[in-house]
Amino acid sequence: MTEEPVQTDSSLGHHPHSPPLTHNPKEIWKKGGRMFSVLLAINLVLLACTLVSSAAFNQVAVHDYDVFFMLTIVMLICIAWILFYLIVTAKRQNAILYKDSHAGPVWLRGGLVLFAIFTLVMDVFKTGYYSSFYNCLSAIKIIYPIVQAVFVIVQTYFLWISAKDCIHVHLNVTRCGLMLTLTTNLAVWMSAVTDESVHKSHTKFQNTTEGTHRWIMKGNLPINGCSCNSQICQIFQSGYFWLYPFNIEYSLFASAMLYVMWKNVGRLIDHHTHHIHQLKFRLFRKTFFVGIVLGLFILVSGLAVLIVYEVQVNTSGQPDKKNEALIMYYTFNIVCLSLMSLVCIGGSIVYRFDKRDMDHHKNPTRTLDMALLLGAALGQYAISYYSIVAVVASTPRDAVSALNLTYSLLMIAQHTFQNIFIIEGLHRQPPEDDHKIHPHRKDLYGLTFVNINAVSLRVPESSSALPSPLPHGQGAVAIQPSDVVQSIMVPKKVKWRRKFLKEISLFLLLCNIILWIMPAFGARPQFDNVKELNFYGYSMWAAIVDICLPFGIFYRMHAVASLLEVYIMS
Amino acid sequence: MTEEPVQTDSSLGHHPHSPPLTHNPKEIWKKGGRMFSVLLAINLVLLACTLVSSAAFNQVAVHDYDVFFMLTIVMLICIAWILFYLIVTAKRQNAILYKDSHAGPVWLRGGLVLFAIFTLVMDVFKTGYYSSFYNCLSAIKIIYPIVQAVFVIVQTYFLWISAKDCIHVHLNVTRCGLMLTLTTNLAVWMSAVTDESVHKSHTKFQNTTEGTHRWIMKGNLPINGCSCNSQICQIFQSGYFWLYPFNIEYSLFASAMLYVMWKNVGRLIDHHTHHIHQLKFRLFRKTFFVGIVLGLFILVSGLAVLIVYEVQVNTSGQPDKKNEALIMYYTFNIVCLSLMSLVCIGGSIVYRFDKRDMDHHKNPTRTLDMALLLGAALGQYAISYYSIVAVVASTPRDAVSALNLTYSLLMIAQHTFQNIFIIEGLHRQPPEDDHKIHPHRKDLYGLTFVNINAVSLRVPESSSALPSPLPHGQGAVAIQPSDVVQSIMVPKKVKWRRKFLKEISLFLLLCNIILWIMPAFGARPQFDNVKELNFYGYSMWAAIVDICLPFGIFYRMHAVASLLEVYIMS
């Protein structure tokens, strides 16, 4: 008889201050398991970073095949783990109790598959290119693209079917496996970015300043007379460099999805807040076509500008033509960025009047989206600030410098306003809520409208929309009836507001696509405009641009995905 | 009669899925205000970063007085805001409803004041140094240290009295002001680190490789014949360079405290979880003096090693002496790091058996502590990985290389284990809980011990400590009585365990102090050991070390503060 109360009390006595403890033992050790996998990832990323950066420099005795060797090994380990996950872990009883409805939306997975296909084509080209001079190279250069192709196929399949999983068995193994795969993708990304930058800087400076800058970076120099002379080899080489942007984006997409999966390991989702939004992608419905038409116009003219710019800058050696091309490029960008900034400000103002509830539920996907947008914007910010300082501090001030300054300032403004707009958009409840309550609300009105006079009688001060023939102050027992009237007037305003937001997000989406295409496919005004190059010196400016620009390009890519989500949600 | 239910329903209808919403309007707009101040901070940090990094390089036309000019202006703005806060904001009614008990503990504020005093001395030296050749310099070089001194005094007073505030008026102004002050501290930190690195690389290479590396970095070169020749000027110069480490730490301490204040703006603290731990600093009580004695021994021998090392490396030009000094330095570090790693592993094992509750309350200070520990460790990780690659890949393998490799590997291991130990320690409930429940528990035992036989009778399977003369299986109605027995046995074990943890944290604390002193006061084996220098080339290796080492030094400093907290809590 005495034991029962003693036990209860003593177990209570352990936590005298504790609020209702919802942490089960699993929850408590989550941090430990997470920390171990994070430490593993940090160490692997740093090792990869060291090797990749060492291999990029000529005077360092680390070669690119050392990097390929490491990458091949970690890829093989990842493939083994993914197969283990698909065959053993996911098949266990109670392995996947919940699915995170926000993780891995269909457009992200679709984009992943698209980029995976281009990456596979790139791997074919790479294998073909290296096979052309098979005898002079170490075997790892041919093995690497083949292993990468297998890795891409296995990983894409894995992410397609498992992106939403909240796994509840083999917690620590799964965490480490996910972090390992994530790290591998980051290492591949670093290697691809470095390889592309080295290649770009070589083609850029091959003719103009031969010899002076050559020593800084390694490249695919002809070794022992095994040069790439046959036409098919040339096609392979230029083909795989054109496909690099897709491989880079593939790695980043996969990393983002793996991170969300890692956050979801062992997660218990509250069924209360777990409402799946079956959002349908209804393109062009409920829009006036203004956003899409204007956006497409900018997209097409941007492509034209890019082609003309590339031709004028790369083929002609005349500085006049180059200057013209730069002026054209900057003018187009300034117009585009100004429009985008204005539209973002307009969108943010519309959100100010939006009475939809803020969505504050836990949502790792959205938190990651925000962090990536803010983090990736730092790349472009940094380039812009360095440009601004260079232009302001150096003396000969011509038209190109003025345009460059405006362009840099607008870049900063546009990134800032766009981030604010996207983050506000992502934090709104989807409009499905309105749809669902409409039938319900109609019933209420049906009930109220029996005595419609009683409503119009009580709302003299708030409504110019409703005709109120009676003089003011008549409703003696008006218990805040403006609420009722507002809910009658809301649909029209909401409709207009939602149309406006849809226009805005479509326009911004198309603009971001062209601003992604331009740097991803070779436009480098940062190097064609000699101002910063002379101010900072080649090596410093190249380091700044080569480190920061990949983040800027990724920002555009990620903004497109986020704007698509904002479009669907508004 | 009909309006009331209509209103209630329609207001409910807006959130059909919503869980109990606890977000008041203030909470909802918190994100907006935060984002704005973060964007402000990002932009200012990037601008400062651009200016500081540009000013560090010789061929760039940005000068250090440009940086000083910018810093002086933002410091003046910060001083104005701090005065506004102290005089207007904090005096308003209901301005400070809550105090965060975790923020700004007394040792952090004490450390801040200590570093502030050294910074003031440094400012005096700096003013004296620049006044020596007053005529050749722009006035900003003398104004800057004076403004900095005022800023340090105002800021230290502000942080001393306001570090715990959770302010509830002027939210946006306060957020922006705090972020501005935080950014200013980071900018001062960047400027100080760069200035120190430039100075170090100058003194290092003044004699040995004159001319070859000189062009890379700017320094305090004599301008127009205004060189520092008088003895007092020399004293001022060397004095202020010796005091730089304290200024660097001051800026980082202030930044950390400002960040916690920023997180606490507008925070509503649940009084339920708001239990202030009146932890007293009882040094040397409940310890066996093993940790402190061993730690002091290592501290003193480390100081001796540092002095001998500095003398041998800097004064003698003989490579033999230099090699000896390096071997001594590495050996000492290897012994120290091995001991620390072992002790950390031991501590983590002890925590495995610790049944104290994990503390999962919201605590911005602790979250920041963890993030800073993990983030700052990246600096040392990066240096170690680059060293490892250099040593493994280069061919002449002598004793120094082997020691360097061991040292780098142990650095990685020690950082990892120490982070795990500290983070586990910070997540425990303080032992006060045990004290408070003891009287309560004693009552329970008093009640139980009336029939002491009944207890010992029912615990045959779990206790070897309690004598149980009766054969097994006698207690027929034993309803899990092991709980009761364990709570009788706990105090002894807990006492032993806590003593052990106290020893460990004191030992680690002292070791971290010596590992902070060594690099902070000039030991640079990374440059004295020519292996990495030859492997990566001077400019790349200098960039790696100069960017990463300040984080490594900050890590040691921060680990000391965290270990002190672990010591007090265990």
TrEMBL record, chains A, B:
Under InterPro entries, the record lists: Otopetrin
Positions of transmembrane segments: 36-61, 67-86, 106-122, 142-161, 241-262, 283-309, 329-351, 371-393, 504-523, 535-555
Q: Provide this UniProt record's keywords sorted from A to Z.
A: Cell membrane, Hydrogen ion transport, Ion channel, Ion transport, Membrane, Transmembrane, Transmembrane helix, Transport
Q: Where is this region: Disordered?
A: 1-23
Q: How does it sit in the membrane?
A: Multi-pass membrane protein
Q: Where in the cell is it found?
A: Cell membrane
Stretches with biased composition (Polar residues): 1-11
Q: Which GO terms describe its molecular function?
A: proton channel activity
Any one GO CC term of the record: plasma membrane
Pfam families from the xrefs? Otopetrin (PF03189)
Keyword Repeat present in the record's keywords: the answer is no
Q: Which domain of life is it from?
A: Eukaryota
Sequence similarity: Belongs to the otopetrin family.
Q: What is the name listed in the Swiss-Prot or TrEMBL entry for this protein?
A: Otopetrin 2
Source organism (scientific name): Chelydra serpentina (Snapping turtle)
